[in-house]
Amino acid sequence: MYQVAPQHAHRVGIIDDDDAVRDAIHVLLETRGFQVSEYGSAQDYLRGPQDDCILLVDLAMSELGGLDLAEILRTGGVETPIILMTDVPRPGQAQRISAAFRCTALPKPVDSRSLLATIASCVCEMACSRTNA
Known about the structure:
Layout: E1 11-15, H1 19-31, E2 35-39, H2 42-47, E3 54-58, H3 66-75, E4 82-86, H4 93-101, E5 103-107, H5 112-132
Parallel strand pairs: 1-2, 1-3, 3-4, 4-5
């Protein structure tokens, strides 16, 4: 399956106001060799060190949602891959999110295989961009 050797582990930040979602994804990713950090809100993330390689962000959080956070980060020049998770996907939403913020959208509840495949894709893109830089 999608396993990352510990010496090449990438830090994934989970930003979701639902403790159960954060905990479940944390366990899934940690068992696959990822380093994981958790944030209960976008504000908590923005106050932190922001040293994650990939972000998993809930689209609909109180106060500052996933799209708002993506806009703040992209406007600030942050290119960290962002995977937005949404309970209520709307037709065309994933394409609009991708085009506007260079983010990927996944429906909630998140399927573990889809999530791991999306993260693996992000890791590959980061590796390619490093070798082409």
